[in-house]
Specification:
There is one protein chain. The chain has about 200 residues and is an alpha/beta fold. It has a single domain, classed as P-loop containing nucleotide triphosphate hydrolases (Rossmann fold), CATH 3.40.50.300. Helix content is about 35%, strand content about 20%. The chain is globular and about 45 Å long. It starts with 5 loop residues before the first strand and ends with a helix. The mean pLDDT is about 90. Bound molecules: guanosine-5'-diphosphate (GDP). Guanosine-5'-diphosphate (GDP) binds next to helix 1. The site of guanosine-5'-diphosphate has 18 residues, from helix 1.
Length: about 200
Amino acid sequence: LFAGPVTFVKGVVAMSGLPPADRTEVCFAGRSNVGKSSLINALTGRKTLARASNTPGRTQEINYFALGEARYLVDLPGYGYAEAPVAIVAKWQALLKQYLAGRQTLRRAFVLIDARHGVKDVDEEILKLLDRSAVTFQAVLTKVDKINKVERAAVIEQVKGALAKHPAAYPEVVVTSSEKGEGIETLRAIIATLE
Ligand code: GDP
């Protein structure tokens, strides 16, 4: 689907470290523990690509993966660690702002939302930042295997309601389970159509 192998390119800690903006890229953001590593691994079909559960307070990197020759997948550090030091959070937010506002080839941000919790205050910050940066974002519900059909319908409504307030939001929500494989093909297909 991505015409070529999926490989790790590099971890970036400053704008100067970004690879040349020579191809389409998509980024993944989400609260820590939302299931971002699991989803990226499911999406790329690799088991050990994205390291699960980054340690809070550690230097946070923007991880670049090549999806074949034509696309980058960008794994943004998880946010919302209760115990993350203020200085680290500030540094990370500054880099994130610069990245989102300045990356010409960034086509879409996928914001991961735990299907059990819906959009929380901690998510609103990045949604506002994406609005201000004019980066189209799409919500991806994770761990949907943990909820039933009624809860699924309710959380989709909650998320759609929250998205309606954001001009940069793409209206459709992707529903996934890395555990069961649900929604993974859909997400791959969405990424493959972005030029
Ligand atoms: P990250 O911190 O966002 O990278 O989250 P991880 O991918 O490390 O996942 C956090 C926890 O949620 C781990 O215990 C995973 O096994 C679990 N998890 C992730 N995705 C799923 C899923 O689709 N279904 C279920 N049931 N658990 C999941």
